[in-house]
Amino acid sequence: xxxxxxxxxxxxxxxxxxxxxxxxxxxxxxxxxxxxxxxxxxxxxxxxxxxxxxxxxxxxxxxx
Length: 64
What we know:
The chain is α+β, with helices and mostly antiparallel strands. The protein has 2 helices and 4 strands; from the N terminus they run E-H-E-E-H-E.
């Protein structure tokens, strides 16, 4: 899995950080920061859920 984030699109809801804190963080303004573009398989389900619930659709996944 490959993860990409569109920071300008982010609305700082923080759902991604709550669901997958090993992969996502937030800056001081609450905007998503990607910690791991190629997360370990054990995090894939959480990352998929993060992308699904992101209100701004700012998380893109590429399955390998």
